[in-house]
Amino acid sequence: MEETARITINGQTHEFPVITGTENEKAIDISTLRNKTSYITLDSGFGNTAACTSAVTFLDGEQGILRYRGIPIEQLAERSTFIETSYLLITGELPTRKQLEKFAASFTKHASLPKEMLNFFAGYPAAGHPMGLLSAMVCSLAGYYPELLKTEPSGEEIELMAAQLLSKVRTISAYTHRKSVNKPLIPPRDDLKYIPNFLHMMFSTPKKEYKIEQAVVDALQTLLILHADHEQNCSTSTVRLVGSSWANLYASVSAGVCALWGPLHGGANQEVVFMLEEIQKEKGNIQKFIDKAKDPDSNYRLMGFGHRVYKNYDPRAKIIKQRAHELLNTLGIQDPLLDIAVRLEEAVLKDDYFKERKLYPNVDFYSGLIYKAIGIPAVMFPVMFAIGRMPGWIAHWKEMKADPKTKIGRPRQIYVGQKQRDYVPIQQRKGQ
Ligand code: ACO
């Protein structure tokens, strides 16, 4: 029998269909609610509201499960590459060798930026946050590739745009770093793969090539894969919402970069390192910070803890924590911040306040320590997140475009402002 849900308003009962996802997730489809009842629903922060159906990523926050296109992220982090995972997310299937070679070849072809675009970097203040520059650069790509701005691009055109965007975002990101440290821009090399090429553009100088360590490449590979998608988070929902107005891919993804920048989302990774440094300055007094986070009169939060959907250990954080230990060991780096992070996590996991609220370390808690060990400055951490999240944003934009049920995103509101009143000329207003 088909499952239904009933809502009774003022004694009148209305029936709504229940839809069931592949993993038995249930939703009451209230799309006819307003027509049937003239009522709307209120769900601040969308904690109970699905905005779409999606086949990209499955997440079970209670059990700490995350799968891209059905494949557990643990397997992808262990065995895949960022490029292959990107292909999987965007097209829905793992590539054949030939498909992967073709996809990777377009990365090489599209790695450089148009020459005129480099002027933007010159004009941006070195102290300005790199996320501002990244967002502007991604959006401005639309001006350079008008031929790709079709309202209904074909699958092949989207694949080309995806490879071009993923490749250029890596170059833009490295250049935002070079700009922020006032160093000359280093062009990409055709002979290097995705991550080595990024490291080369970040750290080589006109006179000296950066020495690429395999351990660093492996750690970044894992991080980018683990950041590649996370279903309807704040930035991905932003990309879908902007794209729902038929805005082009570059504009939609650029809005995603802005949403990601916030410290409650992808900006948390840089805040974690600032917090750990603060704790270090306070002679490692972890309890002081825990108490501040628990104080009901303070807005302070322990950065890198808590998640809207994980009420269990974030499976990505588990892998990243292990990777952080491995990389620091391999590189022979003793970072006191890692010890502080481990002690903070232990203390938090024992504390009733955090236990009751099911607050665990999230993806941002240990990732910054890996970036720091590689020599990437804290302001660049959200940019690293954006490079990783790019395939997810593209996959969702593509899915949203292909879904015949997509409508322009337009939430409603409950108006709580003034009732109608008359305009008063300035001379007659109070206080004149
Ligand atoms: N430190 C202390 N208390 C916290 C924290 C934290 N990091 N996170 C949540 N809480 C508390 C809240 O104060 C609230 O307490 P209350 O019930 O007494 O009012 C309760 O836990 C529930 O918190 P909400 O804000 O309602 O949870 P929400 O799902 O809206 O927020 C969020 C999730 C934004 C991630 C939150 O946990 C947070 O601010 N964390 C710190 C920032 C962070 O690490 N962000 C990265 C998230 S991962 C990502 O986006 C990539």
Structural description of this entry:
The protein has 432 residues and is mainly α. The chain has three domains: 4-60, Rubrerythrin, domain 2, CATH 2.20.28; 72-261 and 384-402, Citrate Synthase, domain 1, CATH 1.10.580.10; 268-374, Cytochrome p450-Terp, domain 2, CATH 1.10.230.10. Helix content is 51%, strand content 6%. The protein contains 18 helices and six strands. It has helices spanning 33-37, 73-79, 82-91, 97-109, 118-123, 130-144, 155-180, 194-203, 214-227, 234-243, 249-261, 268-281, 286-294, 315-331, 336-350, 352-356, 364-374, 381-402, and strands spanning 4-9, 12-20, 26-28, 57-60, 65-68, 71-72. The strands form two sheets. Strands 1-2-3 form a three-stranded antiparallel beta sheet. Strand 1 (4-9) and strand 2 form a beta hairpin. Helix 14 packs parallel to helix 17. It is globular and about 75 Å long. The model has no long low-confidence stretch (mean pLDDT 95). Bound molecules: acetyl coenzyme *A. Residues 45, 233, 264-266, 268, 293, 301-308, 357, 359, 362-364 line the site of acetyl coenzyme *A.
